[in-house]
Structure formats: structure tokens, C-alpha cells
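Dear colleague,

As promised, here are the two records you asked about, laid out in our usual form so they can be pasted straight into your sheet.

NAME FIELD: protein one
SEQUENCE, THEN STRUCTURE:
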Amino acid sequence: MSTARRTVPGAQAIARASRLLRLVTAAADGASLQALARDADLSRSTAHRLLSALQAEGLVDQDRATALWMPGPELYLMGTVAAARYDVTELARDIVRSLAVKTEESAFLSVRRADETVCLLREEGSFPIRSFVLSEGVRFPLGVASAGLAILSFLPDHDVDAYLDRHPELPERWGRTHAQRPLRARLSETKARGYSVNPGLIVEGSWGMGAAVFDRDGRPEWALSLTGVEFRFGPDRLPQLGRTLLAHAHQLSSRIAGSRR
């Protein structure tokens, strides 16, 4: 638990409620109380109490027929206001589409949110066999999916060290390849190459590539990525995909730098 959560009154309750909100918004078809309590590491009674409080404020809603929890109307209103400052999807939409057209693979835009990435946009490529590991709203810890690996690679060394210290659970949850030593090796390779490669570490046979997108201050706040089946990412094609990915990421970084956001 961070120092802030230990010292700021009410911070633990806010952190728990925020975790539940993220889990609710990540579940496209709604989430059960049991699943939310499990994933938030809360008792059912605590999860239900927090969800009821969020429902009273309009931040979540519960379907009467299924009892599943879903985003509430106030989240939509807040989101429309926040989008004016933070949303880059309209700047990126044609670039993501171009990436999908040129590579024939599924292309994505993800944004960094604290220690995670959240997928904002997905464009399907024309190749008929696809990977469905990633879609809008799906979150991954930094360093796990190709987008988060690209972003983490270009953060300052002290930020990377602090992130890994905060998340010793990565190898237990995502496998031994996410222990510090192999993860740091992938980070170094990504930084040297310019783009990340995830060789089926989340789902066997589903490969991904990612390139960081930078804000006006040079911080890696977004990433473009590609996913597809393994044989489409062979050594003869990988460098070409990498160059295309980097070119589109540079185009989006330049567009963001020139915007008034």
C-alpha cells in the first residue's frame, strides 16, 4: 500500500471504489458481484456496499434482469467532459486504420493509465485469421501486452524500477517470463529496436508488436500495436512490420505535439 493510502483519510475506500469502477467499465457485458469482489480482492459484503454507494451517485448501474453491474450514466457525462482534454482517439483514428490496412493485421491504440494500459481503438485488418486478445476497454499491466511493454521501455529507469517494485505479483499472475530478469531483458531489446515484440506470452500463438507514442513533453503516454497469429510475424516480415509501426507511431506523436490539447 502506498504512503498516500496510509496517510490520507478515506484514501483506502476511494482506492477500492476506483478499482471496482475500473473492473465494471472493463466488462463489456456487465460483471457479477462475485467476479467483481474476487478481482478487486474484496469480500462480497464490502464490494456490494461500495457498489451500492457508487450506484446512488449514478456511477454504476445494476441490470434488474441479470443483476450484473454496468457503468452508470454519470460516468458517461464525466467522460464527455474529460474527453475534451484527454481523448486522442479522433487524432489517431485514421492512423490506426492506416496501420491495419497496410499490415493487414488488427491494429490498436492504447493509453497509459497509472500502471496499466487501456485499449481505446481497434481496427481490423483484412487477414481473415485474427487474434482477439485485445479490444476496446481491455486493460493490461505495463510490460505484459505489447503496448504496455513499449510504453514501459521508454519510461525513465527510476520509474521502471519503482513499477517493478510495486508489482512483484507479475510472474505469479502472468507467468515466469514476466519475472524481473526476463522482463528487463525484453525492455532493453524493445528500447534498442524501437518497438516491442510479444511472442505469444499472453495467449499461445497470438503475437503482438507495439510502438510508444509520446506527448509534447516526450513522455510515452500511448502506444500503437498490432496483433495476429504467429506465422504472420516471422523473421522475414517482422522488420517490415516494425518499420511500418514506428512510422505510424511517429506520425501520431507529431500530430499530438502539434495539437492544442
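NAME FIELD: protein two
SEQUENCE, THEN STRUCTURE:
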Amino acid sequence: MRVFVTGASGWIGSHAVDELLAAGHQVLGLARSDASAAALAAEGAEVLRGDLDDLDVLRRGAESTDGTVHLANKHDFAHPEVSNAAERAAVQAIGDVLVGSDRPLLIAGGLAGFGLERPVTETDVNPAVGPDSPRGGAERLVLGLAGRGVRPLVARFAPTVHGAGDRGFVAALVATARARGAAGYVGDGSHRWAAVHVTDAARAVRLAVEGAPAGSVLHVVAEEGVPTRDIAAAIGRGLDLPVDAVDPARYAAELGWIGSFFGQDVSATNDRTRALLGWEPTGPTLADDLAGGSYFA
């Protein structure tokens, strides 16, 4: 297959590109900068210059390939409405050109915001609907293409896709702990975060594009849930800092923007995903990665 990948130079995207290439696929990667373009070319991918706001470029990339993996996101946590609108527009633009083609369109989704008192399952319906909702309601939007000659797929990624080089939520927690002189968790720290190593995540993306049926919702999760107090304790050990409990009423003042995420229970099962893809995570656990020291270098 020749696969169009947005976010191709990002954390998950760069590993997905490597995984696809290693499996014998061709990759057309969206690149916003000269540095990203050079990195993709060095890996052996074709390059399409543009960004998430270049809807004509997104349409061209999707139209000229055998399938699309949409992993780009603005991640503007200060202005979520900007990220939500961009995500909605991008998915709509790509989906429109794929109608009637029977090609796969995999988009990245999340596990936060379901409001359940148990781990999220693949059969749980995402409550985000409409352009003003989280991620612009893109999950429900893309799944609606299943009856229109598109093979839509949703990959709900664990809140921490970890590994050496991670610049995501765990890296933000480490930076926050350094700044405040203590690794904090919210409340009693009993709520949990699902986790997956980035190489396992990339493999799940590749397997899904290759064969998951239309309308599949996949949980790219290796560990169902790691207690947030355990994550904070590992960060404290890595930085040789104390670990403390943060009053839920003060998470924003104490932990900044990452506190709103760290104060949520974002656990999820993956039984259906493993069975559907024949996927068995084999990478290091989050505890292994934190103990390895790469987050503290």
C-alpha cells in the first residue's frame, strides 16, 4: 500500500512511518517544515509539504494514495477550540475525497471525557458530538463514513504513549515536577492512566490499516491503567524529589495545564483490539521506561 500519513514527523507518526516502511509499504508523509521534510526523506518516505490547515493539500494526499493515517493535531491546550476546529475540518476534507473509494481512513482518538466509573471499552460510544466538542467530534464524524464507501477506523490512544524521546504528557509531568520541586498527583492518586509503548502503538496502526474492518474502534492500550500516584512516585525517584498529593481544587495552580488531565481516570480495556488485530504489545511498560532514565536525561 501507499499510505498518506499526517503528523508523520510527530511522536507517534514518526514511529508509524518507520513501521509501515519496514513492512514494505510506501509512505507519503505530510511535512510542515524543512527539518520534518528532511527527516522523512532520510527514512525513505515521500514528502508532501503542508500543514493541518492546508485542506487542499490534505485532499491531494488522501486522493493520491491507497489509505490515510491521520495523526496530526494542533494540541493547542490553551485554545482547544482552535484544535477542535482544525481536526474537524481536516477529517471532513479527507473523508470527502475518499467517499466511494473503499480506502481506509484511520484517525487518532482519545480516551478522556467518557465520564465512566470503569475502564472505557471499544464498544463505548464517544460522547463528543459536533464541531465544538473535543477533537471536533471527529470520531463520530469519521465512523459515519462506513456506509459511504470508506473504511473508517478510530485508534483511541492511551493518554501516555511512552518511550525514549517522548515529548507528551509524561514529559510534561516531569517538567512540572522539576519546576515545583516535587512530583505531585491529584487527590489520593488512585485514578489510573492507560499506557502503551510507542513501538506497540505504531504496530497497531499498521495492522489496522492493513486489515481492520470498516467502523472498527481500536484501543491502542497495553496497560489498562497505571495509578497516577505510582507515576508520580516513579518521577520522584527519577528526579530525586519528594512526592506529594495535590488538592483537586488546586490542581491548576499547582500542576498547570497538565493537572486537568492528570486528575482524570483514563483507563481502558483492549481485549477486542487484541483479538481483532492479532496484536500483542511487547514493548516496555511505563514503569520500565521511567526506571530507564530517558525521561530525566
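A couple of things worth noting about protein two: The first strand starts at residue 2 and ends at 6. Residues 80-98 form the longest helix (19 residues).

Best,
R.
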